[in-house]
Design brief:
alpha/beta, Dna Topoisomerase Vi A Subunit, Chain: A, domain 2, four-stranded mixed β-sheet, 16% strand, HEPN/Toprim N-terminal domain-containing protein, HEPN/Toprim-NTD1
Length: 398
């Protein structure tokens, strides 16, 4: 569908992960000891990656329409200056809607590079969509990010199941080493060019939160795991807590750092208070913040305090990451939920702060559970609260 000389550009690299690499004997020349090296991803995984990178269907359609109107203005002006040769193209652009573009895409993809294609184009639109000229073609219409074109092509071809990137010729030509890890090396933190391959940095209140978020992403959504990196509390002994997380975000905002950041606060008294303070500020668009989502079973959760044991809604007061580790992991040996113990009163939010009474047991059970081999769909069903959290994070990126 698309090709590049001498190297693989970032816009192609961004669609794949290193674990999708495959190498096998070249089927076209079985007598030779040649190999084919590709990256191959499911269409639904590529669409999710595009979505997380901001290449949504709605935006892609808007980019097409912006291009069409600019082209129409240009040809209208040329026609007004007496250039009659612009007539056919102007009239074609007037009827060239995004729906018409998408309707024609399957046939264009099928025939565009065919050597035995003999039929003359039926109209100006077909001629332009089959054109392989950079300035003239309407399949790959001019835009700042060709991934918008990729998105529309994938949407226009519902029968497509797999997307592949073939780097065999580049390896054979010596442009890359045979054992190059093209995707992972391009996404390294110390890569010379960051551009669109910059991963989204996930921040949270503490190292346990980060560990749980990283493990759950790899289990629930492995197809986008390489699009994210996680704040390292351990290496430099960085302080944790809602207050410190809020300070970090303000510092990054003041420094005008271009890195995309998503900060996850606990849905408890301290986390909610800091999150609400941040909401009153004007953070740059690359920095997003959210609280852990409300948990359905937490609306009637056992609590222990000075006034005894009660079931109550702990959303907003005591929902830390442990509440998302699976309801089955929150139970003791008798199948009873570990209660919330109230620890501190926050006058600013006029509410008590609480946490699970046996956090260590919950965490130990969870990390063993999340590491058990299962497919991603089964993992999402096993941990619906973490699935909800990740879907919320994905939404916040758009």
């Amino acid at each position: 569908m698309d090709s590049w000389k001498s190297s693989v550009p970032d816009h192609m690299i961004s669609l794949f992960q290193e674990n999708e690499r495959d190498k096998f004997p070249n089927k076209d020349y079985p007598e030779e000891e040649w190999t084919t090296t590709i990256y191959k991803a499911r269409k639904e995984d590529v669409l999710l990656r595009l979505e997380l990178m901001g290449v949504t269907l709605e935006r892609a359609k808007a980019v097409f329409e912006q291009w069409r109107l600019e082209e129409l203005d240009m040809y209208t002006e040329w026609l007004s200056e007496g250039n009659d040769w612009a007539t056919d193209t102007k009239e074609a652009l007037e009827q060239f809607t995004i729906n018409e573009w998408m309707r024609r895409v399957p046939a264009v993809i099928r025939d565009r590079y065919s050597s035995d294609r003999k039929n003359e184009p039926e109209d100006e639109i077909e001629r332009r969509m089959h054109s392989t000229s950079y300035d003239d073609g309407w399949l790959f219409f001019a835009c700042e990010d060709v991934r918008f074109v990729y998105r529309l092509i994938l949407e226009a071809r519902p029968e497509t199941e797999w997307i592949s990137l073939d780097i065999s010729n580049l390896l054979d030509g010596g442009y890359y080493d045979e054992d190059v890890k093209l995707i992972s090396e391009s996404r390294k933190p110390d890569a010379l060019e960051r551009s669109i391959l910059e991963p989204v940095v996930i921040m949270a209140e503490g190292k346990t939160d980060i560990r749980a978020l990283q493990a759950s992403l790899e289990a629930l959504y492995p197809s986008v795991a390489e699009l994210f990196s996680f704040f390292d509390h351990d290496t430099l002994s960085v302080d944790g807590g809602a207050n410190f997380l809020s300070k970090f975000l303000k510092a990054f905002a003041a420094a005008r750092t271009p890195v995309k950041i998503v900060a996850v606060f606990d849905n408890d008294a301290a986390g909610r208070m800091e999150f609400q303070r941040l909401e009153r500020l004007t953070l740059p668009s690359n920095i997003r913040a959210l609280c852990l989502p409300e948990i359905e079973f937490a609306r009637a959760y056992p609590t222990v305090g000075p006034q005894g044991t009660h079931k109550m809604d702990i959303n907003g007061d005591a929902v830390g990451i442990e509440l998302l580790m699976g309801q089955h992991n929150l139970c003791d040996g008798d199948g009873e939920l570990f209660p919330i113990r109230w620890t501190q009163y926050y006058s600013g939010s006029k509410s008590y702060q609480g946490e699970v009474s046996d956090k260590d047991a919950v965490q130990k059970a969870f990390f063993k559970d999340i590491a058990a081999p299962r497919d991603s769909m089964a993992a999402r069903k096993k941990f619906p609260e973490l699935d909800l959290l990740w879907r919320t994070i994905f939404e916040r990126l758009n």
